[in-house]
Amino acid sequence: MRPIAHSPHAHAVSSVGRIMATVMLALLPATLFGFWLYGWPAVYLWAVSLLAAVAGEALMLKLQQRPVKPAILDGSGVLTAWLLALSLPPWAPWWIAVAGSLFAVLIGKQVFGGLGQNVFNPAMAARVMLLISFPLEMTTWVAPMAQLPGALDSLAVTFGGQHLDAVSSASLLGHVKTEFSRGLDLQQALAGHFAPLQALWGQRSGSLGETAALLILAGGLILIARRIITWHAPVAMLAGVALPALLMNLLAPEHYAGPVVHLLSGGVMLGAFFIITDPVTSPNTATGQLVFGLGCGLLTYVIRTWGAYPEGVAFAVMLMNAATPLIDRYIKPRIYGRTRKGDTLVPEAAKRDAT
User: Fold this and answer.
1) What are residue 351's phi and psi, to 5 degrees?
2) What would the pLDDT profile of 320-348 be if each residue is shown by its tens digit?
3) Which of 71, 91, 232, 239 is paired with 263 by a 20 to 30 Å CA distance?
4) Tens digit of pLDDT for each residue in 42-80?
5) Whole-number Å distance between alpha carbons of 309 and 296
6) 139: containing domain
7) What is the C-alpha to C-alpha distance for residues 347 and 181, in angstroms, rounded to an integer?
């Protein structure tokens, strides 16, 4: 007979599989919208990412003589590949998806011991690896071929009515950085390339995770409402991006984009609600999550503005993942049944007796 663990006991109706399924359902509207914008190549890329992750994880578990079925059915590998696919160019080569998914589940997850043991977010680790190793393939974008309000003609172009190899187009952040290097100011760089409503709906070049900021925001709010995540890290990251963008825009509007451009461009929304809220690679306390999210936002803005890459979410998340143990060391949760008084821990009962 196994001994009963000490109290307090916590009972929850949620399981890992149920949480992963809820997150995937929250991602589904934005993903389907991305399929409609970019067509079958995006669908194939997404499917290849998921299949490669499942197959790679199953093979690794088999080699380690560990149970395969429970680890596959918990959905963590599928969600990792899903998030990676949303961060890729929609028409990237199929082998990019395979290499990224295998790196995410094998190096980013299983090498550290599997679910709950990884130090870095596996999807962002894979994206950084792909950006460094294959910069051309990872920065080649296509323009969305479906236009709102939609019509059957746009669906025909998107889903095979006409055979187009690609309609090349720079992402907004990449375009602005390129135009700056040519000596144009911000207003000239943004002219005809950014409209807030268009960016909100995703009618611009970018990854699947950038195509619909409104739908990604709605999915994130659903996760908060279902208590899958809390508001602390997302709000802190959005503030970490918006506040320096606002300050620099007020100081030099001809050189620095405002907060709306930064919030609705790149993977900020996806990162804020679906990446940095990973419970394994983020701090344990609410205060720690505020610090973590703020750091992710600030680093994202710094890399975007002064770094070599136009997008900085993945690099910022990786850097703050590395800082998570340090945050947890100095921002600790209160021990159950005790409260802090100075630097000593005083039991609640003693506190009541003293009052």
Assistant:
1) -65, -45
2) 999 999 999 998 876 666 665 544 555 55
3) 91
4) 999 999 999 999 999 999 888 888 888 887 888 889 999
5) 16
6) 16-330
7) 61
Q: With respect to residue 89, please indicate whether it lies within any of the assigned structural domains.
A: yes
In whole angstroms, what separates CA 336 from the centre of its chain?
A: 32
- Give the integer Cα–Cα distance in Å for 86 and 49: 10
Could you tell me the sign of the dihedral formed by the alpha carbons of 346, 350, 354, 355, in that order? positive
| Widest distance between CA atoms in the chain | 80
Task: Give the C-alpha separation, 57 to 71, whole Å.
Answer: 8
Please report, as a single letter, which amino acid is at residue 157: V
Q: Are 283 and 292 contacting, i.e. CB atoms less than 8 angstroms apart?
A: yes
191: domain CATH number is: 1.10.3430
Number of domains in the chain: 1
Structure tokens at 154: 């746009």
CA distances to 80, 140, 227, 279 from 14, in Å: 19, 40, 11, 14
**Residue 138 to residue 88: CA distance in whole angstroms:** 7
Q: Is residue 206 part of a domain?
A: yes
* Amino acid code (one letter) for 46: W
Asked if the peptide bond before residue 253 counts as cis, ω within 30 degrees of 0, the response is: no
